[in-house]
């Protein structure tokens, strides 16, 4: 029940402490780490990851997973690039991006609920179909030299504060409120906690699942605007590291991969942990290929350690249940 | 009559997966011989099937891991293939005898597999998370160690496995694919070990209570998967005469697709190696057919994705129909 309280859980504080520790270590090791221009670029580069991670949190809260977000972002980014080249009004482009993203999410959600395909299989299949679409749509040539239509969303600065901070905090606030105060938020937690119990208490589990994937899709759609605004181009490897980074951010942020437990605040801390780590490795001159290996190990360890901690709780719960049952038996 | 066909005959026909796959295989063969007149002779077909050897090895392992249930899946097979290949390349570069190096590579693959076995079966991570993590870790290590550059300094006689022939049959089929398949088929279908795998997949709790060491069986299956990836790495390196660090990328999708197309239930407990073998033949032939038809290799990704989604949906439909027929509501 801790997760329903609007505030910080102990697990959130742990992740935040981890980020602070990381910042301290990197500022000691590298003198270029703690200055405003570097921190700004860290933030800028982490904007898409932070938004996609919100959606990934929602999906993981429901006990699901989505590894198609990278290819989905690629497909939407290419469409955005085309529309910018056709000089369509930015507002319409934005709407189209969100709509296409949401549609992809709807397809994923439908495959999972109506096709009864496990989340990992459905999104693995989709991921490859969409990746092929990226290759096909680009046709071997990158989209480059796009005018900076969406750059103000990431590059700009308002009241002396980088635009990406605004974007990140607005989205996190909105989705935090949605998960905490709106019925759909409780339905998401309930679905992840115990599907049968959620069904019995009248929650439309199928609808909740599909809505969850659609929310993730819409965030991916919006992130593609940020991607195009940040780079001004779409390359063939677009979004290839995105799913794994988002999953890592979410599990470092304390969400349980079994569903039902996790928080938006934890995920935000997890995103910052990932962003600082990528930057720190870069500053230390470690080849970027290592980054993937580190992310792989991080996922295994953070889930594994969570598991060790929760095993004790699970065992305690189980024993408690046992004693209660035997008491009932005696009576 | 029509209603009966849809309610009884069709599910029965489809649910006998082996017949269904053989029919599909014949359709693919007819289609391919229409595309190219040079297609239908033994030598061409054997040459195409040679390409399927590595996929068959990985898919056998994938089938066993998925069969044993508990949401079992191994996303890291491709990365293990790449990293084992790199290991072989480095050993060969340092002057180790190539056949000794090959043996060590197979053991190294087993070591990688046992890491998955440890995180998933013993530590209790969900298989998809544990193997997703190791997929990235192993795949990146292969790239980091080689700096992305293939290692190619294998002695000439090493090409024997990947490129040689015995009595006209490619060596990798005769000496690798066939024996491995037969041995594992025997174990799965005629030994208590195979019954253990199926029982664990059908009902883990019942398996535990009947004294089956569930954890140890699952650990062994992930290790076996690594060993098969190690064998695959040797075959691949011998065939290309180079150890490419990205050689296994995408193999996880292929092996999972083949496994579910072969009729293995993604939730474990049901499936057969014969189905997997037929599915490997079909997927390999379709891939070469797309090549013959001049379709870009990129679209194979999409085709595989569609086959994967389609095959799982059909499986789910069949299993729910079967459950209804036998009076158990799904």
TrEMBL record, chain B:
Keywords annotated in UniProt: Cell membrane, Membrane, Transmembrane, Transmembrane helix
InterPro entries per record: ABC_transp_permease (IPR001851)
Location in or out of the cell: Cell membrane
GO cellular component: plasma membrane
Cited Pfam families: BPD_transp_2 (PF02653)
Regions that span the bilayer: 18-40, 52-69, 98-123, 135-154, 166-188, 219-242, 263-286, 298-319
Entry's Gene Ontology molecular function annotations: transmembrane transporter activity
Membrane topology category: Multi-pass membrane protein
Keyword Phosphoprotein assigned: no
The protein's name: ABC transporter permease
Originating species: Bellilinea caldifistulae
